[in-house]
Amino acid sequence: VEDGILFETNSSNHMADDPTTLGSYTTEADDILSGMSVCITGYNAPMYAGFESEGGITVTSFMETPDSVVAAPKGVDASWTEADNYETDTYSTVIQAAKSDYDEDNHPITSYVTAYSSTHFLESEYSEYSSVSNKDVLFAVSERGAGADKTDISFVSKYIDEESFADQVTEASSNTMRIIFMIILPIICIAAG
Hints:
The chain is an alpha+beta fold. The protein has helices at 120-123, 134-145, 162-168, 171-192; strands spanning 5-8, 14-15, 18-26, 39-42, 53-54, 57-64, 69-72, 92-102, 108-116. It is globular, with a radius of gyration of 22 Å.
């Protein structure tokens, strides 16, 4: 990860009036994201995979920007006009590192670490749009990290309507839950040792 922010120089590849909110696309390095489309994220940090394989660790770039992106200095906004002074490049936006080993029964086990160039993969309004794959990418990569292919784990998106939930919570039920979690459960845990 480098200092700065990704800035798209091709107006066809970014949101209107915001070159820092850009599209990134799946690579062919792994089939985990096959069939997924573009992800739209803003405020991406410049990222590269430092190596493909080293010391038993394999690094895969799942998503990349087009080659029309520059790493602009931190703090620039849509009105920044110095992009022509920087070299365009392709930057990774989702990178996963995997390290494999064997357990005591000689079964392969793998640990995964994933880096995202932006928190917008998770927290932006784009994660709810079906025309982009922000949420799908996040779930697919998380499921791999959790070993979902070897279990029945499946991540699904849930939405809680805060207003309807808040209407159902009374002060009495809130106090009951507070007593259970702050007094009764700690006493049981202490007693159990």
